[in-house]
Amino acid sequence: MGTLWETLDERLRPDVVASTEMYARVRPVLDALSESMRSRIGDLFDGSDVHPLFVTARAKTVESFREKASRMLVPADGESVPQLEFPAPLREIHDLVGVRVIVKLPHEIRDAANLIKRRRSDFDCRSDREKDIGSVESGTYGYSSRHLILRTRGDDRARDFQASLGGAVPVNGNFVFEVQIRTVLSHAWSEIEHDIRFKNTEPRAWSPHTDRQFTATAAMLEAVEDQFSQIHERFQTVSGYWDAEGEGAVALDPDRIRQIWQTLLPHVDRKSDDDWGWAGELLAAHSVVTTLEFARLLQSDVITSVRAALDHRYSPGPDRLLDDVLLWHFGTRHIELTAGGDRQRADSLRRRLRQMEGYRAAK
């Protein structure tokens, strides 16, 4: 199976050749326009909350232009001569200039796209497509990217390019180009896949096994991105706990205590029920009433020390571990405030406190 150019109907070749020759002549002007679009898109993010890793741009190569200009439509019934998909490719192909915005995490794709689309005074968004929707809905894996088709408004660089075409298109500065937004991992996958699939000098080397390997790597990268997203979301949540004027000031109730515990200590959740009322009573006894105060008690070094000091025979659940953490922090005061008239509990707390004191002394 040859390229589109190689299989192009001979009757259509003259038109494609003429367009390709003109494109080759004006491509240096298009390079300047491409750099201008890269700069303008990159400038949109200055001072915003969206921080791409990098923004690149390219003008379509002459070979790629010829290949795309060679696309044919399926002949309708009764038609003997096929038609070109792009009869006027210099006007109808919308990715002569392509800008790539590369971000770290999947949620930043949405943020970047929304920021660009809001700048209506700079660009008119003609199309917005998520190229992974098909694979998600079909249960497969593959190319993942957000594609915007934008049009400039009276851009001087666009006028220069249009003028260089010698009347083939109107000289109005309204130029259509493509912006692709994707994560750095998807970008790496796309670049490698594109080089092997489309730039391969020996098409016969491609095999179903290669397809399978690319599908597998796309699945793995999606799983990695999911993990990175979870890390980011958790870090943002935990950072909020330490904001004394924001999330850290939120008052504790049983639901809030459960949420904080399961965020900070997701591996310690062996609880037979979902009642966090007793935990709330223990914390209230020490006037621990805000998110920040609770988070301060659950530092990882404290959890490690408590475990080492008590060497639990059975891995403690949330209630027991919280009780031990409060005993570590408040010592005999915790016994006085929470043992009440329960002698068995008081004896257990005193025994555990002696273990903690012995551990501290040995340290």
Automatic annotation (TrEMBL):
What domain of life does the native source organism fall in? Bacteria
Q: Molecular function terms in GO for this entry?
A: transferase activity
What Pfam families does the record tag this protein with?
Answer: RelA_SpoT
The alphabetized UniProt keywords are: Transferase
User: What InterPro entries does UniProt report for this protein, alphabetically?
Assistant: NT_sf (IPR043519), RelA_SpoT (IPR007685)
Give the RelA/SpoT domain ranges: 57-204
Cite the CDD domains for this sequence: NT_Rel-Spo_like (cd05399)
Entry's Gene Ontology BP terms: guanosine tetraphosphate metabolic process
What's the name of the protein?
A: PpGpp synthetase/RelA/SpoT-type nucleotidyltransferase
